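Q: Convert this sequence to structure tokens.
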Amino acid sequence: MNTTQEDDLIFKFDREDRIEEFDDNAVHGAKSTMKRVDRIIEKNDNVIFLEIKDPDMPDANNPGKLLQELQSNKLIHDLAGKYRDSLLFTNLRGGYDKPIDYVVLISMAVLEDALLISKTDALKSAIPVSNKHWSHDSVNSCVILKLDKYKQVFGDGSVWRESDFK
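A:
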């Protein structure tokens, strides 16, 4: 088993998956202004750029702020920038020969599925996914998921809260 933790959330991946703590000054340098996704998970057949937002964690500061930023599209522009800068950084260090999937986990139970679907479409446009002058798409898939949907896609035991076991 291979795990990584972001605040209260613990993620489990297959033993052979390579997990990089990408949002780390040791990787980018302390003075870097590049935006970065939280984790990069290299699997056998694909690479996942994983961004984690957890306003439902115990003692979260101002969880309503994230909802406001999502509704105003400020968060969408930030998420798009994180993907683009992370893609640029990884390409400049050699890139991947596998498709890249961008998964944004927003652990906020009050979010409506319809809102996440429309914001996923907005994120795809903001990245952007394709261009007529490119030889291939910039991302294989792009999705914004709540915690319950993440578990449906990646398995029930793929993520859990540390606070649930204290």
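The longest helix spans residues 74-92.
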